[in-house]
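Example for tutorial group B:
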């Protein structure tokens, strides 16, 4: 792998936390090239996300992952604490009041 080739990416977005009266930073996606896993790239991105959150006035960086994604969860457990939330997906549907 060339030194000038990106090996990891993170997609971040701000979101409001009305119950807490503050904002947070969502980590919507974190990907590391399989050849670069274990290199520290993902940890560097997580540290950068935390710095961006602080600079932007956010109180937390939040993300979800699959329960069976044990490799990623080992990484995440070194940087964060599981929030204990259960995530649901509901399919989009046409309005019923039209």
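The residue assignment follows.
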């Amino acid at each position: 792998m060339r030194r000038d080739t990106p090996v990891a990416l993170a997609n971040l977005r701000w979101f409001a936390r009305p119950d807490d009266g503050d904002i947070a930073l969502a980590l919507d996606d974190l990907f590391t090239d399989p050849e670069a896993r274990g290199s520290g790239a993902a940890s560097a991105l997580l540290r950068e996300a935390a710095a961006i959150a602080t600079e932007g006035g956010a109180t937390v960086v939040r993300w979800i992952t699959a329960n069976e994604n044990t490799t990623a969860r080992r990484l995440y457990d070194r940087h964060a604490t599981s929030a204990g939330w259960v995530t649901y997906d509901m399919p989009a549907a046409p309005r019923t009041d039209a």
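The radius of gyration is 16 Å. Compare this with the pattern of hydrophobic and polar residues in the output above.
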